[in-house]
């Protein structure tokens, strides 16, 4: 299967602190890959380095065969990004922010069709600030899909959502997975990871502890569910 993302020996320092420590993994085309770890483990920094948003000290990164630093503009025509810090200006309306996003790309998706697909068309003239948490998160995914990306990055997408809203977002991601989109996500919810991810990489203090399929990760632990297996791996340091 074709490799979509290749990270080799990635290291990133913030002054005297190591944020990412000799991290290596690959993501195959069409799979859902989860980067897991506690707060401060280096997940968001890793995504920033993969996308060329932050410089790194040593190692190499390739996304769709491109160097994200040297070919950032070309790369961003082919990837979709929803970052943890997503925020929206003032009272911008749903339709307006979709139009603004579409204007950034040469061959954008039809955002009106996406609004209908995500069941957000009824909110097109409504300020984004008045959307519910779940609706805002679905809008974040929608905006990341406007470039018609080959891979999409989602950073802690469902944090703070209630159960119904989370399940609604899960269904959107499941539909995208079935269409063959490559999805790279971070999450603190192991039920979410277990439901969506094909493979995961668990990191702590920027260093990879284990990279494996969800099923093998569970099988190699003394537990039956990913949440307990994850905690076991974090405690033991091995899997």
Side by side, the strands of the main sheet go 5-6-7-3-8-9
| Strand coverage percent | 25-35%
Overall number of strands: 9
CATH fold category name: Rossmann fold
Which stretches of 5+ consecutive residues score pLDDT under 50? none
The Cα radius of gyration reads: 18 Å
* Shape by Cα distribution: globular
Distance between the termini: 25 Å
CATH classification, class level: Alpha Beta
CATH superfamily: P-loop containing nucleotide triphosphate hydrolases
- What class do helices, strands and sheet pairing give? alpha/beta
Mean pLDDT: 90
What does the secondary structure layout of this molecule look like, with pairings?
Layout: E1 3-14, E2 17-28, E3 32-36, H1 43-50, E4 58-63, H2 72-75, E5 79-82, H3 94-102, H4 111-117, H5 133-145, E6 151-155, H6 163-178, E7 182-186, H7 190-196, E8 199-204, E9 207-213, H8 214-219, H9 226-236
Parallel strand pairs: 3-7, 3-8, 5-6, 6-7
Antiparallel strand pairs: 1-2, 1-4, 8-9
Helix pairs in contact: 5-6
